[in-house]
Amino acid sequence: MQTQMETIALFPLNSVMFPKGRVSLQIFESRYVDMIRQCLRETSGFGVVLIATGSEVARSGEKLDVHRVGTYCEIVDWNQLPNGLLGITAEGRGTFQLVETWRESNQLCRAVVRFRQQDAVSAVPVEVAEEFAEYVDLLKGLSRHPAIADLKMDVSFDNLREVAWRLSDLLPIANKEKQTLLELEDPIARLQQIELYISAMNQ
Questions:
Q1: Class in CATH terms, 6-120
Q2: 70: helix, coil or strand?
Q3: Residues 6 or more apart from 146 whose CB is under 8 A from it?
């Protein structure tokens, strides 16, 4: 990812992604088939953004609004599924802020984005201080659950950024709350918000 603003394609979803998180997608709309082919050809990525209003599938006359912070993803695996559709696995690389958005003639969303360099896989790791050890223990406990272990998450428990990203992924909260976590660029602020959500669950 570059430091300056960049134009990327957007893939609006009813889910929130975090850096180093993965999502598997079936691609069937022609606009996204073309987008994925271009990404594979150019070894480029696309942005995943949470839908505020509207749906994932284009409908004539329907307005689509998306949240202003999303996650830049790159394709790490792809194949043709038994149903004939294109299947991909995308992994988050970093977050971005939308600057300007528009639709192309084929209804593909594009945007000028500003990458948030301190909330990216390439950012300098943040050491886990003793005061945050409980979050590491919580994440390790969650990681041992069979359903989560099957995800084979690659987590550096020594990097506070990754601990915050993965807890944000795994916390059983609504997309609205996950989007709030995504918009908090600082890992400490993100963990503090996670603590508030956990406290609310236990009440």
A1: mainly beta
A2: strand
A3: none
